[in-house]
C-alpha cells in the first residue's frame, strides 16, 4: 500500500485531552494504516484541501466565531468528510442551511463509542466519495446515518440497514430516504426551517 493510499485524519482542537485521546480512538478503528496529524487553526484547512492531504477533518473547538464559520462554509470539500463537534447552544443557521457541504455535526457531550461510530461513517464516506465521486448521495447518507447513531442509539451498520429498509418500504431511492431523515431532524431537533429541495 502506497502512502498516498493511506487513510489520513486531520485533527483541529483547542482541547489537549481530546488530541491525546484521538490517537487511542483511531487505534480502535477497523482499518489498517490510518495516519493522523494535528493543525492549530481553521485557516490551515484550505491548504490541506488544496494539496489533497486528508480524508477526514475533525474540528473540536470550544468556541467558533462567525468569521470561522463563514470561512468553513466557503471551502470546497469534495471527497473529504468533516466532523464538527459543537456545543448544545450552537445555533449558526447558515451552517445548517448549507449542510450539503458535507459537515457531520455532533453535539457535546458524546461518548467514545458514539464518536467512534461517527468516525467510521466519515471514513467510509470519504473512501466511497473518492472511488465514485458521487458526493451528493454519500454526504446525505453520512448525515442521515449520523442522526440515527447519535439520536436513535444505533451502530453504523444498523443505521445503514435502517436507511436501506426505509427506502425499500417507501419505494424511494436511498438518497430520498436520507433527505427525508435529514429534513425531519432539522425541523424537529434543530428547529430549522428547511425545504425538501436541498442540493447535496
Features:
200 residues, 5 strands, alpha/beta, 8 helices
Report a brief summary of the structure.
With 200 residues, the protein is an alpha/beta fold. It has eight helices and five strands; from the N terminus they run βαβαβαβαβαααα.
What does this structure look like?
The chain is α/β, with parallel strands linked by helices and 200 residues long. Helices cover 50% and strands 14% of the residues. It has a five-stranded parallel beta sheet. β1, α1 and β2 (34-39) form a beta-alpha-beta unit. It is globular and about 45 Å long. The model has no long low-confidence stretch (mean pLDDT 89).
Write the layout of secondary structure elements.
Layout: E1 7-13, H1 16-27, E2 34-39, H2 45-50, E3 56-60, H3 66-74, E4 81-86, H4 93-97, E5 103-107, H5 112-132, H6 135-151, H7 156-170, H8 174-188
Parallel strand pairs: 1-2, 1-3, 3-4, 4-5
Helix pairs in contact: 5-6, 6-7, 6-8, 7-8
Unreliably modeled segments: none
Total strands: the figure is: 5
Radius of gyration: 16 Å
Distance between the termini: 32 Å
Number of helices: 8
Helix content: 40-55%
Shape: globular
Largest sheet: 5 strands, parallel
Q: Strands across the major sheet, in which order?
A: 2-1-3-4-5
Q: Which structural category do the helix and sheet elements fall into?
A: alpha/beta
Integer average pLDDT: 89
One letter per element, helices H and strands E, the order comes to EHEHEHEHEHHHH
Strand content: 5-15%
